[in-house]
Design goal:
Layout lengths: L3 H15 L3 E5 L19 H7 L7 E5 L4 E5 L5 H7 L5 H7 L4 E3 L2
Parallel strand pairs: 3-4
Antiparallel strand pairs: 1-2, 2-3
């Protein structure tokens, strides 16, 4: 992950180049592993990763150029996920690390 200013600059340049409208970014979801030796592991969508820097499943985002808003949509981890994976930073904390203040549930 780069510094949050890097992602903010990338989004600002995109907004400047596009000019107006609403841009939708869909991140990847998890893909089931059917057997132990399956080498396919989770990989975030490259465009989403480039502009938002978050490699978490189940995220999407919009950039509203006219309203100058950037919103990430996703859900915080459930207690089951925390038990399974251990303590993790909250999604809100992750969003702040990439310079996005608005987080809404998916």
């Amino acid at each position: 992950m780069f510094a949050k200013e890097t992602y903010m600059q990338r989004r600002a340049l995109l907004k400047k180049n596009i000019g107006s409208g609403v841009l939708l970014f869909l991140g990847n979801d998890e893909c089931g592993l059917n057997y132990e030796d399956n080498t396919f592991r989770y990989r975030q969508d490259s465009t989403f990763l480039y502009y938002f820097g978050l490699s978490c499943a189940g995220l999407s985002a919009i950039i509203d150029i006219d309203e100058d808003k950037e919103i990430i949509f996703g859900d915080e981890l459930s207690i089951d996920a925390i038990v399974w994976m251990g303590s993790q930073p909250t999604l809100r904390d992750k969003c702040e690390r990439v310079g996005v203040a608005d987080l809404m549930p998916s």
